[in-house]
Design a protein that fits this description.
This protein is mostly helical. It has one domain. The protein has 3 helices and 2 strands; from the N terminus they run αββαα. Helix 2 (about 65-70) crosses helix 3 (about 75-80). It is flat and about 55 Å long.
Length: about 90
């Protein structure tokens, strides 16, 4: 692949990423409007047309690795697993 072709590919990637970012922002704004409406109605679930929409609290338990590392640093290091991956970025 020539330098020109690579440049064109990168420009296309940047254009597509901009479009994705704009659409994501638009989607999040639309979600926020629906969530605000549900909150103002005081409902966690509603059916609209053929869609069932839920906006409610979900409780989950997560392991606090930072606190564990502070209190049990040797044990933390004993069970740490290093991984290697590749990252693609365009600046």
């Amino acid at each position: 692949m020539s330098t020109t072709e690579i440049t064109n590919k990168i420009e296309n990637i940047k254009t597509l990423q901009t479009m994705i970012d704009e659409l994501t922002a638009e989607m999040e704004a639309a979600k926020d409007e629906v969530k605000a409406e549900m909150t103002s109605r005081g409902v966690e679930e509603m059916t609209v047309s053929c869609f069932k929409v839920r906006y409610k609290d979900v409780t989950s338990n997560r392991f606090d690795s930072t606190a564990f590392k502070k209190t049990h640093s040797e044990l933390y290091e004993q069970f740490c697993k290093k991984t290697v991956s590749k990252r693609f970025s365009i600046a």
